[in-house]
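Narrative summary of target 7.
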Amino acid sequence: MSSGGEHLKDEAFWKGNIPAELLYITYGSIQFSAYRLSTQLLHPLELPSGAEAFVSGAAAGASATTFTYPLDLLRTRFAAQGPDKVYASLRSGVMDIARQEGARGFFQGLGAGVGQVVPYMGLFFSAYEALRPPLAALSLPFGSGDATAGVLASVFAKTGVFPLDLIRKRLQVQGPNRVRYVGGKIPVYSRDVWSTGKAIVAREGWRGLYRGLGVGLVKSAPASAITMWTYERALKMMKEWNIPGDHGH
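Modeled conformation, tokenized:
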């Protein structure tokens, strides 16, 4: 294969990387800030720890998803581009969507996004808070009990809500440039989540709702492990430095 072809193949692995990096930084900041705030607000109610973690996680996920959704949509569209690029750059992508689809275009599939992330983050933080204490008691090296809890919680939560994640991505690539994405055979879906889900099942069967689950788990599990390990280390450092805040669990 020519060097040009190899360059294109290598480049394909990084499609959508810039909006993805902006998304992860912004999303993570909002998510953990909202989670700690929600935990502090709910703590006086003396809810069971599992319920408190679920509600706090759901609120954090909904807040972060809504605020960062345009970046999520841009990431998906850039990743779905083929050799015939729909958007030449991040700036042109923003301008084209605004011109062709209006402000609403940046939030296409938001219902599925929030519908997916609310149970996902609720299940994730509930499972994480339940798994963290027994794994911490095992005294795993480098504090990896937090990372292990993050992996297990991510697999559990991701598998449970994956159909909504798939529907969200299918809706994100709707619009006037739908036929120009990879494959060029993306069906037309209505804007609502339920109708899109039924259309996928009718066309691909129930297994179609879990298409790509393996790749999704390979991506999310280690990311969650690193995120939660770093989060716990940061909280510990803040506690040692006597920085005000809720450092307990």
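Residues 99 and 183 are 25 Å apart (CA to CA).
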